[in-house]
Specification:
Four copies of one chain form a homotetramer. Chain A is of the alpha/beta class and about 350 residues long. In chain A, about 40% of the residues lie in helices and about 20% in strands. The first copy, chain A, starts with a helix and ends with a helix. At the A-B interface, helix 2, helix 4 and helix 11 of A face helix 2, helix 4 and helix 11 of B.
Chain lengths: ~350, ~350, ~350, ~350
């Protein structure tokens, strides 16, 4: 049987050949409708740095769809820079950010949070999620310790929706997290890199207005949800992010041609494009899940979004790598491994059909 | 006469009306040829983070045009993040970066260099340029001071080509700067945010291979020179930037859909598009300069690139703001002020003609 | 029964009354011999910042006692600043420091490591110790991950000797850790805040020359081992810590009257005072342990140094707080808790006798 | 004539021989009265980190002598760490600190301010002092700039009293600086590393209560004014420095045996010792100045404190280096140089007499 290393080499070898792509949701460019708007506006001259009317209009669309009429909205380019800038803005210097040990900021941002001087305070994850009771207990225990002033104070909570493992917080879970944060007077920040896929999940019992009501700051991901790039930071109460603009610049996260972000988010929030294209992706992901299930394979996570994790025999994995790119996630004993398949707005029904035919 | 504040308000009021745009070179989108390539490749699936074949091909094109076959090339999104990341990579912790007091990193990056823990060590500027003799003297004097270990050591030199004031270093000036840096064993880093306009200047006596030969690291600006966004960091000797990739990620400067940068730089370095479109802009800028000159107004800088600085009577400025957007740069006595007009690949000959007609 | 909060209030109330002190090993001033040397030299004039002859002589004494004739030795004031400065010096920007989750840098330094931009990469602790096999596995697994360049690279290993829990690495354990670090080409750094008490332990099978041979950098703690304050950083190979002096200054860790550190370490390393006074402390700690053992109480840690951890019924704890100060460490079920008693060079035999009489 | 380099080598060669010491005010240990108190209290056991009764008493003494009954007082070890910690506490992330270009934080702290992520915004110095009009103009101009959000905002003012050049702000100058800071709503921070010598100057027309009334935060220097080490940070309104304690720890500036600072400051503020010993030093410094004046040499600065700067012929400097240590400050044309002589509480009248005899 091939090792994971060989799998990957193999996948790379084939990557220039026609293949089915399930490795991630940022493999293609922008949704055609988004690209069309970029092309249409390309030769216009506007002021830079997001002070243009496209950004203003997109900000207004986001305020409306979030039912947050006073919200501060700032567009940034990518997820890591957004997390680093928002967290730097929200924390005082002696504070750290609570996050699941699987949280993107704790694992996959090359220490961007620490680069700004902040510690990630790790909570246990449960299918990628943080429990409100763990947050409560962490903070309560912290302040009972005589030496707490020698320790990094829990200054905010970071969560992802959907999580890195494809799972969702329910509305009541979000309400509990919001309540525990407010009980302890720390802000709740939601990383919505794939928020469209959460909103599009069949079991989603929350809305953007719910998120705006429950979170102090969150971001609506564009990069993985139909845009070329771009993330929209939203603070329903604008006083939560004072002096954010120079901080964005200081973090190197300010796009000169800011309107590119406004144009894209404007398109995504016209006629509900943002959620519609995610529904397509989620539907295909669930078809894939049903197919693996029918073939007798187990899911590794209770995911109802566009990331699906399966436990497959190594020889099956080996065989599937002939047809598709997907992510090897780790060994599970001697003969099985976990793998991840990701769909996006760009996945075609034919891709699923073709993959299912070779499972 | 209107104050500068009023000018600006005025300009903003009119910004939605048809106007001539000379405020900066990032007001429009991408050069149509660049955009065409983005559209053509939009629906392809590639791996992320710059490991795709478009990036690899663009890197190769850049190596060729720079006559630097071994060069390390990394694409980033914007100028401030590029400066912050490169400078962070080149400096040791006890070192700072020498720069002209007008240097972009010293003035207009909201403290991004200091955010990474480094001090900007200021040298006098001469029409925006740093003199090799000042660098030599700074470093020599520094190490003669008994208390130098209590001070921030000069660890690299930062220059801009063209400078923030539109002026150019000649080849011999670049050679002197390179020599003094190597004499003192510190790297020379060139910020080429507008490098196309430098290469296109009538008096440019240097080439990209010269720059690659003389600089330890430099970047080829895309944002202001025809791309939607993007800067290409080049280290002719790749050992100058070890472990640069995770540092890019740590700085939040890694684009998920990295190929967008490869596609754009690929287009810019096909058929010399990069310099051709800058030649157009410089030609128009010099026409504007000739027109102001003919009208009896002085230049504030010896600029031969796409940024032109004029000293105009305040009432003339007042009047021109009815027709065009441009930058108020500062008062010059009671009755005159300095202003900046910038052209780009997107400026039309008609724009110049129209503006000239109302000078 | 009193809660821990009440215990502490109670203890504080009594702290001005004659009590037995076992809360920590930095409650008293300096060992009289150390103080005598400070008094004798007080009115001398010397150069500052450690360039004086007392520092030079103490550096030489340390080189000799460590059998490290070329060692770089730098004196700093306190432990947290020493850890922050050394770790900042040893790590490259994309790297983090491996440490036990109970490691002082991970828990009790208020984020000083992160303040310098570095992540603490947590390893499981076993009675406060790190296992070489865990280090090996962490690093091997790390580089097998396809996304490792998006993660913080393990750049060094931090250990404490004795650990925060009073336990000791044996010589063979140190050798294994050193071997695994060298196998993966990362430095091994040993925090010796209480190193005297490790050297004085009855089961210590290692010497200072062993530590100098096995560690890339370590520090010999003074604050908790007989000095008023002060820690001596030792790099047996001086090339491990280039440009360390300006970094010490940058970290605010440079003492103006540097000779105070030289005088103290000179005294501590004259006639083996450093270990002799620790032997006294360890002997008393083990008497205490024997007494609790005889009374039928369990140890919480296999400590053979000056920190002893006992599991006591809450009513016993309650009663002992009438006589002595010590640290409440945490509940252990409903009726028992863990407590810490610490001895030092300043603990008197009578203190132990008196405490034992009331157990 | 010897070059400065030779001077210094020469001075070093002689430093072990009996010489007169005028190089700085931190060459000797502690004032005997301060040391006496350290010795007397040496064997007491107290809690650590400044929670002891000696610290509490010293804090109370400082509140009284400053007429600031609610003041927050925190003891730190050295000046650079104090500046770095206070400035880090006062600035928001997008802000920098205004300071004279000769300010200690701008020149002699190895980039400690930038290490915490903050830029030093440089103002012109006038005999080491900052003019209120320059502060006013800097801030007013700053906010008039259209691009100010791309620049580092002036977030506080740093001054030294006396300055690095020995000069003093008068009461009315301090009042103007305080007024301009409050006008622009930024805190005024005074670095009092040598504050005792300012208070002891014959022309001092301000008191500690004046400083407490006019500054938002200041520190009372101990290291150069009679203590072994130690600086007392004072915030008359304690709300100016919330969460300062963990920040002190994070900066590695928290002394374990905190009472050493309390004991020393307690001694310094008993019977006005702090100012009395400085008066002695200033008196001797002025005798020296009179002697140089009588010999026909010019002062380089209008200093009335313990640092005196003279312009001397190089051959005179050469000759004086046979008898005394002092600081070579820089060439002044071909044949003259500036030198600095510093007195302290430890300077003896005989030292002055002896030096004067050889001028």
């Amino acid at each position: 049987m091939l090792t994971s290393q060989l799998f990957r080499t193999f996948a790379r070898y084939f990557k220039n050949i026609a293949m089915l792509h399930f490795d991630s949701d940022y493999m293609a460019g922008a949704h055609p409708e988004v690209l069309r708007r970029l092309v249409e506006t390309n030769l216009e001259h506007t002021v830079g740095y997001g002070a243009d009317s496209y950004c203003e209009q997109a900000r207004q669309q986001i305020r409306e769809v979030c039912a947050a009429p006073d919200a501060f909205v700032q567009f940034l380019v990518g997820g890591t820079q957004t997390n680093a800038t928002v967290i730097d803005a929200l924390l005082r210097r002696h504070e750290g950010v609570l996050a699941a040990d699987t949280g993107h900021i704790n694992v996959h941002e090359s220490g961007a949070i620490e680069h700004s001087g902040h510690k990630v305070l790790v909570l246990p994850q449960h299918q990628g999620k943080v429990f409100a009771s763990d947050v409560d207990s962490y903070i309560s225990t912290f302040y009972k310790d005589d030496t707490y002033e020698h320790m990094v104070a829990p200054g905010m909570l970071y969560i992802t929706q959907p999580t890195e493992l494809g799972t969702l917080y329910s509305l009541s879970e979000l309400e509990s997290l919001s309540a525990v944060c407010h009980k302890h007077n720390i802000p709740l920040y939601l990383d919505g890199a794939r928020l469209a896929y959460a909103l599009a999940a069949p079991n989603a019992d929350f809305t953007l207005p719910d998120i705006a009501r429950l979170c102090d700051v969150f971001y609506i991901g564009g990069t993985k949800c139909g845009a070329l790039f771009g993330e929209a930071v939203v603070a329903p109460n604008p006083e939560r992010l004072p002096h954010f603009f120079p901080l964005v610049k200081q973090h190197g996260a300010l796009l000169a041609k800011g309107r590119l972000l406004g144009v894209q988010f404007g398109a995504l929030f016209t006629d509900n494009l943002y959620v519609r294209i995610a529904q397509h992706a989620v539907q295909l992901a669930l078809q894939l899940r049903a197919a693996f299930d029918a073939a007798g394979y187990r899911c590794a996570m209770e995911s109802t979004t566009n990331q699906q994790f399966f436990i497959l025999p190594n020889d099956v994995i080996d065989r599937l790598f002939h047809y598709a790119t997907f992510e090897y996630w780790g060994a599970r004993g001697e003969t099985e491994s976990t793998v991840r398949f990701v769909t996006s707005w760009a996945t075609k029904e034919d891709d699923i059909r073709e993959l299912v035919s070779v499972i």
